[in-house]
Amino acid sequence: MSAPPPTLQVENLRTHFFTKAGVIKAVDDVSFTVDRGQVLGLVGESGSGKTVTGFSILGLVDPPGRITDGRILFKGEDLATLPPARLRSLRGARIAMIFQDPMMTLNPVLRIDTQMIEAVRAHESVDWATARERARDTLGMVGIPSPDERLKAYPHQFSGGMRQRVAIAIALINKPDLIIADEPTTALDVTIQGQILFEMQKLLRQTGTALIWITHDLTVVAGLADRICVMYAGRIVESGPIDGVLDQPAHPYTQGLIGSVPSRNKRGAPLQQIPGMTPSLLKLPRGCAFRTRCPRADATCHAEPEITTPLPDRAVRCYFPTLPDREAA
Amino acid sequence: MLVVLIRRLMQSVVVLLIMSVIVFVGVYAIGNPIDILINPEADIAEREAAVARLGLDRSLWEQYFRFLSGALQGDLGHSFVHNEPALTIILQRLPATLELAAGAMFLAILIGIPAGLIAGLKPHSRLGKGIMAGSILGFSLPTFWVGLMLIMVFAVYLGWLPASGRGDTVDVFGVPVSFLTPDGISHLFLPALNLALFKMSLVIRLTRAGTREVLLQDYVKFARAKGLSESRVIGVHVLKNILIPVVTILGLELGSVIAFAVVTETVFAWPGIGKLLIDSIALLDRPIVVAYLMLTVFMFILINLVVDILYSLLDPRVRLGEAKA
Description:
The complex is a heterodimer of chains A (329) and B (325). Chain A has eleven helices and eleven strands. Chain A has helices at residues 50-58, 84-90, 102-105, 112-121, 128-141, 147-150, 160-172, 190-207, 218-224, 242-247, 252-259, and strands at 8-19, 22-34, 39-43, 65-74, 77-78, 95-98, 178-182, 210-215, 227-232, 235-241, 315-316. The radius of gyration of chain B is 24 Å and the shape is globular. Chain B starts with a helix and ends in an 11-residue tail after the last helix. In chain B, a hairpin with a 2-residue loop joins strand 1 and strand 2. The A-B interface holds A 58, 60, 88-93, 96-97, 99, 101, 104-111, 118-119, 122-123, 154, 156, 167, 170 and B 217-219, 221-229, 232, 236-237, 240-241, 244, 314-317.
């Protein structure tokens, strides 16, 4: 009773798309929690439902998709049932999102100052000059040189990395409690990626903002996240503290993902791959969605596995998890 | 910017020159005005005097170069029928046509853009589908027939609006205009609506297509993720992007509205240059036809230039002549 509710608590979220070809269960029974100041890595291949999870939290799922079940508790308030006006007042103010492609997120025909100031003024009744000052300070904070001049520029006058910084500045400008970052560094050079990761970490430490970092890149998550959720075909197959999951993955899919990352320790050895392809969400195998690609699958896996907790604070959705040997760990 | 402008102007001169040859030769080919202009009972001497007076006894090329040297001094020839400079006659009638065209464009934009937005935002709603069906009608029904129907319904059957003429006019800077008097507006409304119908359908379709495309863009979703109100997302983020193609097309169409007001002016007896052209063709009044066509070409060139400049104001990525290193 005494502890404040976590920043975000997603419970049994289901977001389905009702298309002519059938129902696509893009997000199917997903649960996780993010505390204040915490970084959650949401990892998975393309089409595993990471992005739709992010959009579901913001209430921005496009038709024919909709949230069919579950609760999204933001500081105790269920976003899934909020009236649209209230949800809009939270969006951009308390919960912000950064998109994957920086070349596409800024409106090409509006100046940067317009796009930043409108974000402030949508939520607070401050005058234009104050909002502009805030925009300038935030641009400076994310490492854009001479922000005063750059405010007057149009998006096409920025490079990709700079545009992503502007997008991050827009996300930060109202000092939100939660930021959902959807592969924000995927489209950038490694050096720029490093800079942006560094800035993000610094800013989070300063503000106590919680962060959901959606990515397919395990190496990025390894350096950034506190906890990790691995998604496969719309479900979370494994979750836990970052070190535990990366050092001793229990689910065969997580092991496959980690094995696919080239590493110096494995030099010369052929890179492990996960056989097969991500199944179409329209034709998922019955039971465990991963069983057709799984080395351990047998007849048991034709029934849907439940989530088990082999270790405290670790959850896995598999009949045959690799149970970490506690002594060896 | 200046360099671009100068280059454009030079191109325009070449276009005008080529057009003048085509127009002149074309008009020369359609018939001999002498047969219409001169009393059939006139004798040979009278006939030859008239031919010489109109300059029709010279060869085509001689006539052309006389016209060209006159045109360079601002003289586009004398009307055979009215015995006045062709340019003067056209300029007298031009304000009526410009007013009609402006009224039509105004209606097309005023109705077309909101209707297109609705159709684009709610493509599956009954209203959206109705708007699209209406735009197909606007495209496919012939203008003269719609004009006649408008007269039938609103002027003859209901008696709400007058069927012809300009009504009361007021002079603004010495130019008579209709839209400032109630009577003038009632006269202007039907022909403007008639002329607007085709453009309106075009605007609806352009706006709808643009809206549907822009709505899928990441920046619209990002605008929503910023928590902006729906009216700001649509009114600023979406609208400013779709205005780019709409302005381009409308600018080009403005020329054609003026040039092809011919049908509407004839149906509604609107005393503009379109009606003048039809009358002049019937009388084979060559100088007027040539002057009209030259003026139309000139107008198209001018409008294109204005559109280019407007375009660069709307879309910061197309600032004219701003070569980026």
